[in-house]
Amino acid sequence: MSFDIEEFDMPFEYGRDISFEDQIAISVQGTEAILDILEKKQVKATFFSTVVFAEHAKNTIRRIIDSGHELASHGYYHSDFKAEHLALSKKCLEELSGVPVRGFRMARMQPVDEREVTKAGYDYNSSINPTFLPGRYNNLSKPRRYYREENVWQIPASVSPLIRFPLFWLSFHNLPLGLYTWMCKTTIQKDGYLNTYFHPWEFTDLDQDRFGFPGYVRRNTGIEMIKRFDRYISFLKGQGYSFGTFSEFIQTI
Question: At a CB cut-off of 8 Å and minimum separation 6, what does 53 contact?
């Protein structure tokens, strides 16, 4: 289980403005809500953070580390990327947190040169959604389970068996929870593990006109997301599944 913590710049994709202060405040609020749930449920996870968010949310980053979660890189900025950001973001996050940063996830799961990921010193990369989503992903040729490339573990986001239905954050919001949990269960039975990802702003109220989001983005956010996520973890724990960080996972494969 992982979370991409970043400056909340998504309204720009819908032609709306949002101040930098609001971007950080909303993501901090959501990350704290996530940490509350994980603490209550005694679950460990990996947080992929941009350097920009980490620099402006130092107390939240410290809580992540002190709670036993893993900190990984989500790049330097969320909406700007250069190859040199791979090594720079790793270095900056390690200096800020005082812990090793072993993993990387590209913003918006966009393609990244694996040779550059290796050169930057990462052990794993979780930047692939191995599905087809018009205008976003066309990765049906990619493996749906973990594999090695350029001496780095590739850990794609989980998709369902056969039709490769993505089990990412949008499906969690829009599918009936019973159907979503059933798809997760069948995926675990097939693959032996599950890799899902979410964002902190989902745990805040996105049903606001100022963001310009369509209904499928607004649905089940804020308080409803907190309740839904709590029930989701309860389901997984009720099935006897264990939780862990990405670094712990790659030690088992």
Answer: 5, 6, 7, 24, 27, 74, 78
What DSSP state is assigned to residue 130?
-
Query: 197 forms bridges with which residues in the sheet?
Result: 2
Matching residue, tokens 């992903």: 137
The answer to whether 140 and 113 are in contact (CB under 8 A) is: no
> At 49, is the secondary structure helix, strand, or coil?
strand
Chain segment 53-76, per-residue pLDDT in tens: 999 999 999 999 999 999 999 999
CB 206 within 8 A of CB 11: no
**Distances, alpha carbon 71 to alpha carbons 74, 85, 96, 232, in Å:** 10, 16, 11, 23
Residue pair 122/103 in contact (Cβ under 8 Å)? The answer is yes
* Alpha carbon 145 to chain centroid, angstroms: 17
Element (H, E) at 66: helix 58-66
What CA dihedral angle connects 233, 159, 216 and 11, to 10 degrees?
A: 90
Closest CA to 140 of 150, 128, 148: 128
The token duo for 105 is 């996830």
* pLDDT class of 78 with cuts at 50, 70, 90: very high
Query: What SS3 class is residue 104?
Result: strand
Q: Which of 167, 85, 159, 155 minimizes the C-alpha distance to 126? A: 155
**Of residues 221, 126, 211, 128, the one with CA closest to residue 170:** 221
d(CA 144, CA 133): 15
